[in-house]
Amino acid sequence: MSAIDQEVASFYDRVLERNAGEPEFHQAVAEVLDSLKIVLEKDPHYADYGLIERLCEPERQIIFRVPWIDDDNNVRVNRGFRVQFNSALGPYKGGLRFHPSVNLGIIKFLGFEQIFKNSLTGLPIGGGKGGSDFDPKGKSDAEIMRFCQSFMTELWRHIGEYRDVPAGDIGVGGREIGFLFGQYRRLVDQHESGVLTGKGLTWGGSLVRKEATGYGAVYFTDEMMRTNGESIDGARVIVSGSGNVATYAIKKAQALGATVVGFSDSSGWVETPNGVDTELLIDIKENRRGRVSDYVAEATGATYHTDGSIWDLEADVALPCATQNELNGEHAQRLVDNGVKYVAEGANMPSTHEATEVFRANKVSFGPGKAANAGGVATSALEMQQNASRDSWSFEYTDDRLQRIMSNIFKTAARTAEQYDRAGDYVVGANIAGFKKVADAMLAQGVI
Ligand code: NDP
User: Fold this and answer.
1) Where does substrate bind (predicted)?
2) For the CA atoms of 24, 27, 31, 33, what is the dihedral angle to 10 degrees?
3) 287 among annotated binding-site residues
4) Distance CA 202, CA 217 (A)
5) 104, 262, 395, 396: which has the highest count of C-beta atoms within 10 A?
6) Is the separation of the CB atoms in 315 and 253 below 8 Å?
């Protein structure tokens, strides 16, 4: 073991010791530290001043009680989280997730990833993440509203336009952002539009924000394919999930000439050999809050499956857009055997470590989430710019900025990988490029 390997192993041991029982956080840290070995070999000063240890320790972690009353007058108690991980580049920025699986470790993994993702966008935003173990599924609008109001009654004191600007994530879309913003506005007695992003278009929201993560993931994929002289036009694409990210990835992929051959939710998956009727899917998901099984009942040429997995399909491209660790080593091998040559993560850390190893061994071009799904947060930062200047931009202008940002992220990851003799390894390229910008800012700002 080289001296650098030993140093990195001891950083990691310390992370394990200080953050017991948080496997997703360990996984996210391990992947970044692995990429940083080659940085430390070239530039050992990045280990000075406790930089790596400080980077792995959130600046602040807030955990709070969220009591609310359901429609049957029962008192329910959930747990709320906000992890303010790193503000060296700008105010903390990152989504809120409402899902029963949420715990501190999951919020920390997401917040840690967010630091590097936000750095890669080139925009002045730090990293944070939050959420609750609240399950929005099956709740009435009134229950969702009461929960959001209670959640914000604690969160408001920790956020602000220059401090921390949350957005949506799993289980938090336009409806939830509306209820959260309403309660914030009431508590602070100001229309401070820059405090949340993903707002409605008539009260400070940005065009393209809703579409941005899915569209951005497809723009990234297309850039990645073009380096090999290919493009998404004509490709067969698997998209997992059917939420905000998946829906708009499907829409943009098909608009650019691809055929989306399958999508899913946590109950099952749908095979669509002739492509997806995106208008129908959006109507079912956004207006009717339905399931993918409802799509099959109304669409022609689609079949619903609850056995096997969406990763059994034959395709050229796979875009995992549902949740963390949804694609394991066996799934990855099946994708490779079935012809997939490109994978870009619309979700955060959907591929396990074993899956990424299979992709690497089989020369699959792989876009990690912190690069491929950065379009959402980048457009959130564009929403902040519009709020700060009391302006609102056209769809075309905002979409053009998103495309340029995604192209820059891809080029930055590709160029950085080349500089470190790892051409084509976009994981290493994204980790190193994201890290160096934050690290330089932290070194310049002293030990804080
Ligand atoms: P949504 O809540 O809109 O959709 C989530 C989708 O994933 C649903 O289809 C859901 O199915 C499925 N899903 C969630 N949890 C599980 C699970 N444990 N097992 C199987 N399927 C599951 O969330 P988003 O589309 O906003 O987010 C999807 C991913 O993208 C997340 O990893 C998120 O962190 C990431 N992301 C989102 C951004 C955004 O702008 N929204 C930005 C960057 C990353 P079901 O309805 O059955 O639960």
Assistant:
1) 93, 114, 117, 168, 380
2) 100
3) no
4) 27
5) 262
6) no
Contacts of 345 (CB under 8 A, 6+ apart): 217, 319, 320, 351, 367, 368, 369, 372, 373
Work out the angle between the directed axes of helices 23-42 and 104-120 (0-180°, nearest 10).
40
| pTM greater than 0.70 (yes/no) | yes
SS3 at position 223: helix
- Reduced to 3 states, what is the DSSP secondary structure of residue 167? strand
| DSSP line for 293-322 | HHHHHHSSS-EEESSS-GGGS--SEEEE-S
Cβ < 6 A, ligand 1 pocket: 168-171, 213, 241-246, 265-267, 321-323, 326, 346-348, 373, 376
Ligand 1: distance of its center to the CA of 2 in Å?
40
Going by the DSSP 8-state scheme, the letter that residue 389 receives in this structure is T
State the amino acid at position 76 in one-letter form. R
- Does the annotation place 254 within a ligand binding site? no
Cβ-in-10-Å burial (0-12, 13-18, 19+) of 439 comes to: buried
Write down the catalytic residue from 37, 42, 129, 370: 129
3-state DSSP assignment of residue 315? coil
Answer whether 356's CB lies under 8 Å from 366's CB: yes
pLDDT digits (tens, 9 = 90+) for 118-166: 999 999 999 999 999 999 999 999 999 999 999 999 999 999 999 999 9
Q: For 109-123, give one letter per residue: b (16+ CB within 10 A) or e.
A: bbbbbbbbbbbbbbb
Q: Alpha-carbon distance 223 to 10, whole Å?
A: 37
Cα separation, 217 vs 405, whole angstroms: 11
Distance between CA atoms of residues 271 and 338, nearest Å? 15
Kind of pairing between the strands at 269-271 and 259-264: antiparallel
